[in-house]
Every structure is written in C-alpha cells, then in structure tokens.
C-alpha cells in the first residue's frame, strides 16, 4: 500500500467474505483434492471418518437433541479444521496464481542496495490468504472478471460460496476511483474504503490507516478503551 501511495497506483483490493466457510466444505471435494495432492488414501479415509463418518447430539440446558449425521463441514475449534480448510482452498488460490491473464499488483524492481530481506518480495502479488480470510488484488475490471470466473468454478465443485454484498473493496493508494466504485456497485459490492472513509479498514485485525482523520479515529478509540482495571 505504501508503494501504491507513492506511485499513485490505481489497483484495488477485495476482502472476500466467504459464507459459512468451514460449514460448507464438502467431503467428496476435500477427498479428491487431498488425493490429487498425494496424501495417502489410508490417511484420507481416516480423516473422512473423523469428520464425516459420525453423528452429533447438541446439549441444550442439559437436554440432548436427536442424533444428526455430519455429512459436510469442518468443526470449529478442531485443530485439524484450519489445515483441512487450507487444503480445500488451495486449488482456488493456485488457479488465480497460474492465470497469466490475471494482472494483480506489480511491484517495482528492487535495487541492488536493498536489504537481503527484500529478495523474498515477489515481483507480482495477486492474492493473500490466511485461513478463510482472502484478499485479492485487482489491476482492472478484467481482473475482476477473471476472479469471478475462478470463484464460480471453485464454488461449483467445492460447495463454497462468497457473499459478494459483504465483500469489502479498498483503494491501495488511498485515492477514490469513481469509475471503479460504480463498476463494483453494478457487481453487488458497495463496501468501499479509501482515504475519505471515516474509519480505517480492518484486515486480519490490523487497521490499515490511509489518512490523518483515520489515525485520529484510532487514537480516540484507544483513549476511550479502559485498559486498566478500575
């Protein structure tokens, strides 16, 4: 975002909102993905039995409901669930990364005097993912069309679904782009963030501040927070 601000780059980011991400994982899809990635069939079968070959009963004030077969979905709180979800999501991410028509964000070349850590920065960044929090970087409306293509394809085989109306868009350089905003509205995306937004955008718990008044907003929130015991 700092580089985009300095160079006045028009790229934007989309924070995808996945509807009940863990609950919608389909066992047959997960099985095929794991086998395609080379997991031993015996391990895949064991995981299927752990997550899908059982029934659950819900305790409501000491009263148990009838048994319900778990036919899909990963259990919240299970230590294996995030790992299995990452495996299920990986084909979608790879399709974006391997799509030569998808432009994403192009970093400027790193100078020879840069630190050694700069060598790990990719020249092209298309998507960031942490569990079910996915951020996609777009250079143009063509990128958005490619994204929708991959989302539709991924959803049709995996049972995944993205809440477009809850998806948040933001300007990487902080400026407002009326034409881009108008296009996104036609696609059902009305949540837009730039330097004029009253509060900063939050991504993975981090506030992405793009203006002085957003910084002031954060300072006021911190001052109003009672961090010491009374």
From TrEMBL:
Lineage: Eukaryota, Fungi, Fungi incertae sedis, Mucoromycota, Mucoromycotina
Stretches assigned to the Reverse transcriptase domain: 1-208
Coiled coil stretches, renumbered: none
SUPFAM superfamilies with a match to the protein in the record: DNA/RNA polymerases
Organism: Rhizopus delemar
Protein name: Reverse transcriptase domain-containing protein
């Amino acid at each position: 975002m700092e580089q985009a601000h300095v160079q006045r780059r028009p790229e934007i980011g989309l924070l995808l909102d996945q509807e009940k991400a863990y609950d919608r994982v389909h066992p047959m899809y997960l099985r095929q993905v794991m086998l395609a990635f080379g997991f031993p069939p015996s391990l895949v079968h064991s995981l299927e039995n752990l997550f899908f070959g059982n029934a659950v009963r819900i305790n409501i004030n000491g009263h148990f409901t009838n048994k319900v077969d778990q036919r899909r979905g990963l259990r919240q709180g299970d230590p294996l669930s995030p790992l299995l979800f990452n495996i299920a999501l990986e084909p979608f991410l790879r399709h974006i990364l391997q799509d030569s028509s998808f432009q994403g964000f192009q970093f400027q070349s790193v100078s020879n005097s840069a630190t050694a850590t700069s060598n790990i920065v990719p020249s092209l960044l298309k998507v960031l993912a942490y569990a079910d929090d996915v951020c996609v970087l777009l250079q143009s409306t063509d990128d958005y069309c490619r994204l929708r293509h991959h989302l539709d394809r991924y959803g049709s085989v995996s049972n995944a679904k993205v809440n477009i109306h809850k998806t948040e868009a933001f300007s990487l350089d902080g400026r407002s782009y009326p034409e881009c905003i108008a296009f996104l509205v036609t696609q059902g995306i009305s949540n837009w963030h730039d330097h004029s937004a009253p509060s900063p955008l939050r991504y993975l718990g981090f506030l992405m501040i793009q203006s002085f008044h957003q910084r002031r907003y954060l300072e006021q929130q911190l001052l109003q927070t009672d961090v010491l015991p009374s």
